[in-house]
Amino acid sequence: GGALVANVLRNGSVLLQWAPPRPAAGLRGFALNCSWDGTYTRFPCDSVELGAACRDYLLPEAHGSVRYRLCLQPRYAPPRPPPPAQCVEFRVEPAAMRDIVVAMTAVGGSICVMLVFICLLVAYITENLMSPALAAPRRA
């Protein structure tokens, strides 16, 4: 058959795409099965029946830091036996971790800018206000 590809999108959803199986004669549709490994146990997802013309499927909300396994099984009219299922495994990056990294980078950058301004201000004060040239001349 065709290759099954999982495209992990930025919003945490996953777009599954596949090419039509060869030969396509007698194809009745596809069965999509999935499972994912949680912290302590493995969870099966509900089976999804797809039409014969379908070439993609959107998994809207994938959990971060979880290993998914999705298998696509072509369904043919009898008496043809079904070919082996194509499977793909992937892991979605946790969105919260990505947001924390972006926030920490922004905060760290603004702290660096503030430190530069403080250093420049201290240098200006030291150079101009505490300079011996501004002290009153001594009279003898």
TrEMBL record:
Signal sequence region: none
TM annotation in the entry: 100-125
Alphabetized InterPro entries for the sequence: Fndc10
Keyword Transmembrane helix: yes
Domain of life: Eukaryota
Sorted UniProt keywords: Membrane, Transmembrane, Transmembrane helix
Iron in keyword set: no
Protein name: FND10 protein
Gene: Fndc10
